[in-house]
Amino acid sequence: MNKILRYTLLLVAALLLGATAQAMVIKYVLEDGSMHAITSSELSAIDFNDDGSLTLTTYDGEIITTTECMFDELEIGTREVLLPGETDLDMTFEYEGLSLGTRPVRQYNFLYPTVDPQGDSITMSGRIVIPKNILDGEAPSQGILLFNHYTIFNRIEAPTEGFNTLEAMFLANPLNPDYIIIESDFYGFGSTVRFPQAYLQGTANGNASLDCLLAARRLLEELGIDYGPLTFNVGYSSGGFDALATQKLRDMEFSDRISFDKTFAGGSPSDILECYREYVRIDSTAYNAVLALLMVSLNETQQLGLTYEQVFTPYIASRIDEWINSKNYSSWPVCDSIGREKKVHEILNAPYCDLNSAESQLVQDLFAQNSIATGWVPDPSQRLFIFHSRGDDYVPVQSARPVLRHLEQYGFEPSIVPGRTHLQTNFVVPKLGHLTATVIYLIQSVAAIKAWPQMYADGELIEPYATWAQAGADFDLIATLRALDEMGIDCRSIIQAVIDQMQQGQGDTMNDIVAAVMARLAELGIDEQALREMGQDSGIDIEQLIADLVSYLNENPTQPEGMDVPARANAVYKSLTSPLTPADEYADQLRHWLESKGVATR
């Protein structure tokens, strides 16, 4: 075919495809002979030059000159396309300046068909991250981690750009779990960077994540890579919200194609309405850039037609395009530019700080519609882990609770014990902020996915863990104390010593005990209401626990034959309360303990 005619058809087809939102993959060759790929939805213009070359101009201003350009034979509307090339990376897990692990991986970027926030067909970009030991055949893949990235502002923070902060914490930590990461850029980044991002838009991001998983599975099969039997759905912060939104959409529309072994969601603003109301109520948020992003994303993706001047105070409104829509800045520079001390009423115009105004009611209705619990009929076969710190300074804990209450209506019973129920929770972390609590979420999630192949067979707990985790009364605090008693550790003596220390010798009645315990908890910022909330959220019956403790303390245990229990208890208690003892004192403790066991020492 005549080259000019072919390029003319290319231009017409690209324009038509752009008009109908049916994106196609266009391949082009640079002067060095390398081939690259782009989607027609990314192109704003194709210009023919006098020398026979073409100039491709993208919506974000990139100009590409090529002498060879062609459609891919694959229509992106029906198949996913692996972009030419691959990238070798070193994922590094760093925490507070310390490097805790490094993992060499290979990243593949790809394009896949999905839908935009309006439900129209579109091409999005995603990535596959494979540890080199799996790629080289040194270890089999245990499965897939479907990652939902947390809040990002800058275009270079997109997953396909190699941004790996939390992902590296999962793969490069000392446990070295052998899993493959699959992750969408989501709408507004990567191949769709010219659009406003769909921040906390659950249906849009759920579709993007699930379609990404289906496409990546097929690409892995084409690459001849066995991705393993397990699939976990993970995310923290806004990624936790998107992980739950992905689980919700899976339960409602994708259950015939996808099943998760477990979803791990941490720090999620599950009820966006409650989150918004709390920001307005306390007139503050420690992460004020996200408030601006939330309102911009809602306005743009829901096509409300509001102007920035209507929503934001004048200085903020004048900078939204630069701070948010340009995607040239990360969130912290935006926070600094807004002013971290700024109150909510200094960011949002008065109607949006009045929860009874018509303007506020409009966005509240939309937030309510997009909250996780709304319309979710959960699949009881799926397992969930929901984590939230009570001291979260970015995402108020009350915005995470409604999803727990919703799940309980469908028979999901919260339990802090892994494997006891299908809803594991942890809401007992009292003081850690949003960022610091990430580490607790990380430890619990990574430990679970690492141990899963040893704990489960065909999706069911194996013995003896099943008995240990699911026996109910056979695994609780009192049963544990009794088991320690049988081992020769007199827990009553230790508990009483702690109580005496707390009360400073002021009696030992139950009221005194409770008062002493509550006084110590108050020092941590936990009052009686907070204690009951923690128990309810984490599946702990506080009243029963106290009753069992009273019963336990009033028992008259028999001393194990041939063992000096008080001596053992005193030694253990002394070591617990004096962890930094000199070497000679430690030696004396060890000698006393050995002698209590009947072992002669010199």
How would you describe this structure to a colleague?
The structure is a single chain. The chain is an alpha/beta fold and 602 residues long. The chain is built from 21 helices and 19 strands. It has helices spanning 3-20, 132-135, 165-171, 202-223, 238-254, 272-282, 288-301, 308-311, 314-325, 331-338, 358-370, 401-409, 434-455, 465-470, 477-486, 491-503, 510-523, 528-538, 542-553, 565-577, 583-596; strands spanning 25-29, 35-39, 43-48, 54-58, 63-66, 68-71, 81-82, 87-95, 98-115, 121-131, 143-148, 179-184, 230-236, 262-266, 384-387, 414-415, 423-426, 456-457, 460-461. Strands 7, 8, 9, 10, 11, 12, 13, 14, 15, 16 and 17 form an eleven-stranded mixed beta sheet that branches. It has a three-stranded antiparallel beta sheet with strand order 2-1-6, with no helix packed on it. A hairpin with a 2-residue loop joins strand 18 and strand 19 (460-461). Helix 4 (202-223) packs across helix 5, helix 6 packs antiparallel against helix 11 (358-370) and helix 16 crosses helix 20 (565-577). It is globular, with a radius of gyration of 29 Å. It starts with a helix and ends in a 6-residue tail after the last helix.
